[in-house]
Structures are given as C-alpha cells and as structure tokens.
Amino acid sequence: MSTTKKIAGAALAAALGVTTLSACGDSGDSGGKSAGTTDKTVTLVSHDSFNVTDTVLKEFEQQSGYTVKVLKSGDAGAALNQEILTKGSPRGDVFFGVDNTLLSRALDNGIFTAYEAKGLDTVKPEYVLDKEHRVTPIDSGDICVNYDKAYFADKKIAPPQTLDDLVKPEYKNLLVTENAATSSPGLGFLLASVGKYGEDGWKDYWSKLKANGVEVVDGWEQAYNERFSGSAGGKKAKGDRPLVVSYASSPPVEVLYGEPQPAEAPTGVATGTCFRQVEFAGLLKGAKNEAGGKALLDFLISKKFQEDMPLQMFVNPVTKDAALPELFTKHGVVVEKPESVAPETIAKNREQWVKAWTSLVVK
Fold first, then answer.
1. What is the pTM of this model?
2. Mean pLDDT of the 175-192 span
3. 44 and 117 in contact (C-beta within 8 Å)?
C-alpha cells in the first residue's frame, strides 16, 4: 500500500491476483497537452486506486455530454504533491483522493476552488469537514485490526476487540502492523492510538504494545499477504501472525475473491481498534473546464456512483441514501465509534508523531 492512501480492497484484490477494470480514459501523460483543452472533456486527477464501473461512467457521460479522462498519479501523497507543484495550472479539473490525514495540507496550499456540489445535503454531516466547500466528501473507510477466526477458535481464545485488549498477555506476539512512516494503514493505526489515548498517552500505549511483541513491517502487502495467517495470501506464505492492521472492508473482499468462495469471511474485525479515513474531491483552481468539473463533483456524490463505489474501491458511501451491497452487509461490520483526529491537528503534529513513533518502536 502507499504511504498516504487507504483503498483496502483494491490492494487486497491485487494481492489475491485479481485485476479490476480502470475507469474510462488512459492513466498516462497526455503528451504535454492539457486534458481540459475542450469543453467536452473533463479530467479527473486521482491516485491509482480510483475505479468505477464502465456502464456507470458512460451513463454520466451520456447525460452530461462530457467525456471523462482519468489521470492516475501514483499514491495519494504523490498525486497531491504534483497538484501543489502545479498550483494554478493544474493537470486536470478535479482532484480525487485527498483524505483527512492530508486535508489541511491541501487546503493550506490553496489548490481548490470552492464549490458546493449539488446533492451535498445528502452527505452525512460528520463527513463535511470543510465548511467552505473547497472539497466534497466522497467515501469513508476504517483502518482496523483484523483477526484470523480459525486461530482463535482453535486456541479457544476470544479475539481482541479494543486497543486495550492488544496489550494483554494472551495476545503477546500475535500482532503485525505496518510502519507508520511508510504505510497508510500503519499511520492510521498510530492515529487511532492518538485519538484513543491523547497526545500525552499514545507513547505509553506503544511502549506496552512493543513489550507485548508487536511486529512492524514496511507495508500492507507484507503484513496482510505474508505475515497474517488469516488471509488467502498469508496462508500460502505460512504467515504466523493471527492479528494484522488492515481495513474493515478486508473480510468482504476475502469472501468475494475466495476460491472457492466461502460461506462466511475467514477473518473478523476488532471494531474497537479503528481509525476512520474520509476521502475528498475538489475543483482544482485554474481548471480548464470548470463547468465540467462541477458536473463531475455532482456525479461523485450521486446515488448511482455512491452505490457503485463499494465493490469498485471497497470503501463506504458517504451519502444518506446510498445502500451498501449485500457483500458488505453480510460479511462486513459497522464501526460505530471509530477513533478520529482533527485534520488540522494531524497536519500540525504528523511528522513529529511519526518521528517519535519510529524512535520508540522501530529503533
């Protein structure tokens, strides 16, 4: 996984050998020519994990009269950096993929033009983090500890459910997490501890977690697909850690791509360990096709797109009227009280938190 990006299921699908269809339009450079040079083309700049069903996108194009070009630009952090560097002369019209861990950085650099998208009143209020509407909430997802159901059933041990549980003796040497300096879920798990224990208490928690044998690896793929005993990839790699930092959407993906498809997910979610990420899109300042960009933002929070999104990017819709697919309702979990940290607090402290975490846990 990238260092700043969450899209769990897309990465999990890739880890399981599944290729998802990319959105209409190519993902490469347009040869120096702006994709917004005609009024009929609208360009969405995104991280690599953006995906949409072809028929859903084509319906928008037919109804709006615009052709959508998707310019994929690496992970979310790298994509955002490029937009900051090209501020005022953007590569496209809309940017999708900045999340609440990077939001303040994007807003402070002034890369967006305010626009209140049509249908914003259908978005759940807790996701509207920018009251000036420079960005529009598009999706949410939860970084959570996942557990191997079979391991805990065999050992006759109840799986952990909270952050407090993870430091108990019965879970010693069972958890693998990602490096907070190099991985989005690793950073999210660090932020969960900050949200739970505060700026004065998270270090003490990690000292206890380290003493309880937490293993740290570089990224999500290594943690989930090699070290975790509950995933399809982990089983093949003979992983021996039955607890891993992943996503609340990981169990449904294990079902979807299981061969054969299991009747129930082989993994579970410790719902008291989660940090919620919210992704946003915004109209880029200096967009060549501002009208098309606004129409595209309206589309991204439409019921059609919001209901298509879960099985394309394995994230949750943010609108009140969008229904989750049966795969999510049957095999997923609802995280009622995820941990959160204000975007401005993250922006102010992220680097020093990661540095302190590295000194405490890795070195």
1. 0.83
2. 92
3. no
